[in-house]
Design brief:
Rossmann fold; Elongation Factor Tu (Ef-tu), domain 3; 3 domains; eleven-stranded antiparallel β-sheet; five-stranded parallel β-sheet
Length: 365
C-alpha cells in the first residue's frame, strides 16, 4: 500500500510513520508548511508547524530511510482556518481551529493531493481507531482515553475515513509511544506536545484578535438588559468567560458573573450567574457523519462539546433542518460555533456546529 505519512515534527507522527514502514508499506513523508513566516520558531510547547518542526520531521524521515517533502499549504490554511477563525469570532461564535484544520487541510487538501498522486492512504499520528463494521469503516475512540483525539476527527466523512490510517490508535499510552521513539533513535522522543492555537503561539487570543479586527467600545448588560459595564470589542469574549469583564455594577447577590452571550451586531456582551451557563438543548444546521449515517431520525447517544470534556448521555433528533441534541443533564458553558461530536459507545457517529442553545435557567430565575 502506498502511504503518505503526514509528519508534523512531533513524536506521534514520527512513530506512526515508523510503524507504517515496519508494516511493509511504501511510505513517503510530507510536512505541511502552514505559515508564510519562514523564520517562525517554536517556544517550548507553544505553536507548531514551525521551521524547527519541519527540520525535526526531515531528520526522522532520513532515519527511516523514506523520501520526504515539504508542501506549502499556507494559502489554503490562511483562507480555511485563520480567516474562518476571525470571521467566526466577529459573528459572536467560538470556533475550534484545530478541528477546522483537520477538516479543511489534513483530511481534505492533503488527502485530495495524495489521491491525485496515487497514494492509497494518509497516515497521521492521531490517537483514534478505525473498525470495519461490514457496512463500512467506523471511527472510534483510541485505546488511551487520556490521549483520545476522536473529537477533533469528528469532521471526517466516510470517504476520508476510507483513505486514513491511524497506527497509534491501539497504543495504550503516550508513554509507550515515547519509549518506542527512544528505542528507534528518533530525536523528538521527548519533544513537548504542542498546545494553544498554532497561529497564536504566545497564547494571547484576545490581543491577536484586537490586532486583526480592531477595537470598539460596547456595553456589557445583564439578562434583563441593564447596563453593568463596558468593553472594547465583543469579539474578545466567549461564552463562559469570567476574566476580563469590566463591570461597574456588582451583582445583587454579590456573586461573580460570566459571559452568557455575545451579540456582534450590537457589539454587546451579556453576563449573568454561573447557573445560567447550564444548557438544556443544542442544535445546528451544518452536520456530517463519520461513516455510515444513523438509520433512525431519533436515537440515544452521547454528546461531547470540547476535546477534553466528558461525554454526556443525550438524545439526538435529525431532520432536514439539521441536528438537535437534548442532554440528560445540562451542558456547561456551550458557545455557538463550538462543535458537538455525537458518539454511540466508542464510535464517533458524526458532528455538527452549534448554532443555537437553550438555557436550562429562565431569565427571571
Amino acid at each position: 500500500m502506498r502511504v503518505l505519512a503526514a509528519m508534523s515534527g512531533g513524536v506521534d507522527s514520527a512513530v506512526a510513520a515508523a510503524r507504517a514502514v515496519d508494516a511493509g508499506h511504501d511510505v513517503v513523508g510530507v510536512h505541511l508548511a502552514l505559515s508564510r513566516a519562514g523564520g517562525t520558531l517554536r517556544t517550548g510547547s507553544r505553536g507548531c508547524c514551525t521551521i524547527e518542526d519541519a527540520l525535526d520531521a526531515r531528520r526522522t524521515a532520513d532515519l527511516l530511510g523514506i523520501p520526504f517533502y515539504v508542501w506549502d499549504f499556507s494559502e489554503r490554511f490562511r483562507e480555511d482556518v485563520i480567516e474562518d477563525f476571525i470571521s467566526e469570532y466577529q459573528a459572536g461564535r467560538t470556533p475550534n481551529p484545530c478541528l477546522r484544520c483537520n477538516e479543511k487541510i489534513k483530511f481534505a487538501a492533503l488527502l485530495e493531493r495524495a489521491i491525485e498522486l496515487g497514494f492509497d492512504t494518509v497516515c497521521t499520528g492521531h490517537y483514534a481507531t478505525l473498525i470495519d463494521s461490514g457496512d463500512g469503516l467506523e471511527l472510534h475512540r483510541a485505546s488511551d482515553s487520556a490521549k483520545d483525539q476522536s473529537y477533533v476527527l469528528g469532521v471526517l466523512n466516510a470517504d476520508q475515513i476510507a483513505h486514513t490510517y491511524f497506527p497509534l490508535g491501539e497504543t495504550p499510552s503516550k508513554a509507550l509511544v515515547r519509549a518506542e521513539a527512544e528505542q528507534r533513535g528518533i530525536t523528538v522522543a521527548q519533544k513537548p506536545d504542542s498546545h494553544d492555537i498554532c497561529f497564536i503561539p504566545d497564547g494571547d487570543t484576545r490581543g491577536w484578535l484586537a490586532e486583526k479586527v480592531g477595537t470598539a467600545t460596547g456595553e456589557v448588560v445583564d439578562r434583563t438588559g441593564s447596563v453593568v459595564g463596558t468593553h472594547e470589542g465583543a469579539h474578545a469574549f466567549t461564552v463562559g468567560q469570567r476574566r476580563g469583564l469590566k463591570l461597574g455594577v456588582p451583582a445583587a447577590d454579590g456573586k461573580p458573573r460570566f459571559v452568557l452571550e455575545v451579540r456582534p451586531v450590537s457589539n454587546t456582551v451579556v453576563v449573568g450567574p454561573k447557573e445560567a451557563l447550564a444548557i438544556a438543548e443544542i442544535s445546528g444546521q451544518r452536520f456530517s457523519w463519520a461513516g455510515p449515517a444513523p438509520k433512525a431520525p431519533e436515537f440515544e447517544c452521547e454528546v461531547q462539546i470540547r476535546a477534553h470534556a466528558d461525554p454526556v448521555p443525550a438524545r439526538a433528533f435529525v431532520s432536514s433542518d439539521g441536528v438537535r441534541v437534548v442532554p440528560e443533564t445540562p451542558l456547561d458553558g456551550v458557545a455557538p460555533g463550538q462543535s458537538a461530536v455525537i458518539y454511540v459507545g466508542t464510535r464517533v457517529l458524526g458532528q455538527f456546529t452549534i448554532d443555537t442553545t437553550v438555557s436550562a435557567v429562565p431569565v427571571d430565575a
